[in-house]
Specification:
alpha/beta; binds iron/sulfur cluster; 10 helices; globular; five-stranded parallel beta sheet; 15 strands; six-stranded parallel beta sheet
């Protein structure tokens, strides 16, 4: 779900609107692209040096202490035919998540109005589809139109899109689309087998070509090797342009999913991922997404130091837990950070969204 705030800095105007189709394992420095080796070197730095560098980059591009509070509404939950190993919404996994139909327009408008009343400037909607049918796009377009009618920006995460569907969503007023790459291409088949990495890149291309802003990130703690984490960052940072919003998720190990027994990521390695995302994509909103509950306050504070400037806010992320909103308010106050509301969906991930 990709999604985010009114204060998001747009990508540099000079950047070409074309996505990198498949990044080679290492690219020449002359191309200006990030190589996996270069990213690995950053990840391996002494932590304090890495944090200092990331915070320095952060302050060059963003106001210090500004944290976007993003909220995600699941408008169609469960029953997904994909088999993303992290996701409790996949129909084939026994996770206790029941399949719901797409919410009605009036229900969504009520939720959007409540979000607006709470200060949100953007409303994001996530649906657990592999790829929406054209009739689904029509229904979501109606949701987008209704939400736009309230004066809110819109964001959606609906799965894989064809070119004409992305254009239809743009025409309906969609501002942002979330579609995560999840992990490096070399580890992708260990996570999901019902689609290919290139499918993801193709959808991102369609979204960009339609003129919709991109929210795209990944998930760590799925049993991937360090090189795969570097590979994920390389894929994201080498998109042309890189995403406006980059959610980094820490796997929520949901019983019943194939990745439920994955070794948890070391919290400092998670902080390193945030820092390297900030350094390689300085103008992106870097969002702490799923898995914040398991990080704890101290590690989250390090993530903010590393350049994270957005969090998911609210008690639930699609179907997994999130720190309660009061706890977030207290944490930001303790750290002297300024949160501001927006409503988002980033996720594929079930981690925030769905595909
Ligand atoms: S992450 Fe998205 S595409 Fe994958 S199973 Fe969950 S809802 Fe479906």
């Amino acid at each position: 779900m990709s999604t985010t705030v009114s204060t998001m800095t747009p990508p540099p105007a000079a950047q070409p609107v074309q996505l990198h189709r498949r990044a080679p394992a290492a690219q020449s420095a002359a191309s200006g692209a990030w190589t996996i080796d270069a990213i690995q070197t950053l990840l391996d730095k002494p932590l304090m040096d890495l944090l200092f560098e990331a915070q320095t980059v952060h302050r060059q591009h963003w106001p210090a202490g500004d944290i976007e509070l993003a909220t995600l509404l699941s408008v169609k939950t469960g029953g997904c035919p994909e088999n993303c190993g992290y996701c409790p919404q996949a129909a084939e996994f026994d996770t206790g998540v029941k399949a719901d139909k797409l919410m009605e327009v009036d229900e969504v408008v009520r939720a959007a109005q409540a979000a607006k009343d709470a200060g949100a400037t953007r409303f994001c909607m996530g649906a657990a589809w592999r790829a929406p049918k054209d009739r689904d796009i029509e229904k979501v377009s109606a949701l987008i139109g209704a939400v736009k009618g309230l004066g809110l920006q819109t964001c959606a995460t609906l799965g894989m899109l064809e070119s004409h569907q992305a254009q239809a969503l743009k025409d309906a007023g969609l501002d942002y689309y979330n579609h995560n790459l999840d992990t490096a291409p070399e580890y992708y088949t260990d996570v999901v087998s019902t689609r290919a990495y290139q499918d993801r890149l193709d959808t991102l291309q369609h979204v960009r070509s339609a003129g919709i802003s991109v929210c795209c990130g990944g998930i760590v703690g799925m049993g991937e090797a360090p090189v795969h984490r570097a590979g994920l960052i390389a894929q994201l940072a080498n998109l042309q342009p890189y995403p406006e919003s980059v959610p980094i998720n820490s796997l929520v190990r949901v019983p019943g999913t194939p990745l439920a027994d994955s070794e948890p990521i070391d919290p400092f390695d998670f902080v390193r991922m945030i820092a390297v995302a900030r350094i390689t994509m300085p103008k992106a909103r870097v969002r702490l997404s799923a898995g914040r509950q398991q990080l704890g306050d101290a590690v989250q504070a390090l993530c903010f130091m590393a350049g994270a400037n957005s969090i998911f806010y609210g008690d639930k992320l699609l179907v997994t837990g999130n720190p309660d909103a009061d706890a977030d308010v207290r944490l930001l106050a303790k750290l002297g950070l300024n949160g501001h509301r927006t409503t988002t969906t980033d996720a594929d991930a079930q981690q925030l969204h769905p595909a």
